[in-house]
Amino acid sequence: MISTRLERFRHLIGGSLAANSPSPLARWLGGTLTAARPGETTFTFIVREDMTNPAGILHGGAAAAIMDEVIGATVHGTLDVEVFYTSVNLTIDFLGSVPAGAVITATTRVIRHGNNIINAECWLYDAGQRCLAHATSNLLRTSAPVQDIGPGSAPPDTTFPHTPSPAP
User: Could you count the other beta carbons within 10 Å of the beta carbon of residue 146?
Assistant: First the structure.
């Protein structure tokens, strides 16, 4: 049976994360959801100049952010989880590079959904299907409720949850 959450998430296919994600980082990364199945998703991203390193190629930190975000989106958008899961690790093998302007694809899959830990993986590919990076992650169950996204749900809350302390 397809979850209501997955059905709503599937309505985001073809839409921009910049407009639809409850995650401020995902909104900055942009990207487009292109496929969603239980425990699996595919997203595309355009590598912007502000995502590159001084050599003009996709920065490893930006690639890591993409992979962490899409793994989280897969867990919270395609599984029947009622509470938030947070990354406790992210292990990445960087295997290739792409310049600004390149279109990359992020494909994710949940490997194991335990009671407290979810294990997932992600691959980044260029337009020629060359593997750019592979990541694995474990996500830990928290007590924070999941915010649904998609048609019929409340718009993302973009307010900052607390006032930051002044810099020392």
Answer: 18
Other beta carbons less than 10 A from residue 70's beta carbon: 27
With a CB cutoff of 8 Å and minimum separation 6, the contacts of 162 are none
What global pTM score does this model have?
0.85
pLDDT in tens, 44-96: 999 999 999 999 999 999 999 999 999 999 999 999 899 999 999 999 999 99
Phi, psi of 127 (to 5 degrees): -65, -25
Residues with Cβ within 8 Å of 17's Cβ and at least 6 positions away in sequence, in order, are: 23, 26, 27, 29, 30, 31, 32, 33, 43, 69, 73
Chain-centroid distance of CA 147 in Å reads 15
Q: How far is CA 158 from the centre of its chain?
A: 17
